[in-house]
Write a structure and sequence with these properties.
22% strand, five-stranded antiparallel sheet, elongated, 7 strands, single chain, alpha+beta, two-stranded antiparallel ribbon
Length: 234
């Protein structure tokens, strides 16, 4: 069993025993690896956002919080790979890190046979990578949090002429361009709606202030050449 298959198998093992616990030694014996390998695997899953908790002492072990995981899903292998392709293209998009953990949870929630078939099919999907790596910046996590929680954010921003300014911004939404992602918000420095290209954000910090409620559709007409449509989830 390779490591990827073992990671998914560990999640399934913990899901099957939840809310009970499995010790690292029991998991090591189950998958015929060392305890140290299991500890590294579980740490990798935790870093990926899988809600695995560890208790020490007699009777302790690893447990999966089923309230924060998906129930068994009837995704076909092709459907899972299609979702994987879409999520793999998020690149520098907002919540790209969450996309990776979402994919892990989706495949882990599939049956063992379908999950294995999905991974075999995924091996037949390849992405061409340009010789010159793309140096566009990903959306900073603090900016994602500002939009999600509607908190005022302080930006150090470089405009198209290379001038850097500090601005307090009331975040409203993310906007996708042909190549770049933008933050649309009410700029208190300019006293109006502005688009901020995320790769020009040099620093960002949340302020302890909830932004006033502002509607994207009220702001969009005040930004020239901006035409956008919302992400549809259903």
């Amino acid at each position: 069993m390779n490591r990827t298959d073992r990671l998914y198998a560990i999640v399934e093992e913990l899901r099957a025993t939840a809310p009970g616990r499995r010790s690292a030694r029991a998991l090591a014996e189950r998958f015929e690896v060392s305890v140290r390998t299991i500890e590294r695997d579980v740490n990798a899953l935790q870093q990926a956002g899988v809600p695995i908790y560890a208790d020490t002492g007699r009777g302790g072990g690893y447990a999966l919080d089923k309230t924060r995981t998906l129930p068994p899903m009837n995704f076909t292998p092709s459907e899972a790979v299609a979702v994987g392709i879409a999520l793999s293209r998020t690149g520098e998009a907002p919540f790209a890190r969450s996309a990776r953990t979402a994919l892990l949870k989706i495949v882990a929630a599939m049956s063992a046979a379908d999950g294995a078939e999905a991974r075999r099919l995924a091996e037949r999907i390849q992405f061409l990578v340009p010789e010159s790596p793309d140096d566009r910046a990903s959306v900073p996590a603090v900016v994602e949090e500002a939009v999600a929680t509607r908190q005022v954010i302080r930006l150090a921003y470089v405009d198209r002429n290379g001038a850097e300014t500090d601005r307090d911004v009331e975040p409203v939404a993310f906007v996708s361009g042909v190549r770049d992602w933008y933050l649309i918000g009410w700029c208190r420095l300019r006293e109006g709606p502005r688009l901020f290209r995320v790769d020009r954000i040099r620093r960002a910090a949340l302020l302890e202030e909830t932004a006033p409620s502002r509607d994207f559709h009220d702001m969009a007409p005040r930004i020239p050449d901006l035409v956008a449509h919302a992400l549809e989830l259903g």
